[in-house]
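Sharing in case it's useful to others searching the archive later.

Someone asked me privately for the predicted structure of Phospholipase A2-gamma, so I'm posting the question and my answer publicly. Question first, with the sequence:
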Amino acid sequence: MLRRCANRTSIAASLATSVVVVVVVAFFFAVADSSNNSQIKCSKACVAENCNSVGIRYGKFCGVGWTGCPGEKPCDDLDACCKIHDECVEKKEKFDLIVLLMA
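And my answer, the predicted C-alpha cells:
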C-alpha cells in the first residue's frame, strides 16, 4: 500500500513538473512573439541585453543610432523630443561638412 502511494506521488510530481515546463515554454514564446510585434509598432522598452547606456532605445527616435524611418511619427512627447534632437544634430553635421568643404 505504501509503495503504491509513493508511485502515485512521484507520478503526480512528474506530471506537475511537465505541466510547469510546458507553461513556462509557452510563456516565453508568447513574450518573444509579442515583443517582436511591439518593437515594430513602438518600442518603449530597453532592448539591449544588459540595458547599458549605449544600448538603451526608446520609441522610434531615442537612443544612440536609433533615428526612426523617414515619415514615421513619434510615439509620444519624449520620442518627439528625441526626433527634434536628431534633426538638429543632422543639420549641424551637414553645416559642419559644408564649412569644411568651403575651407
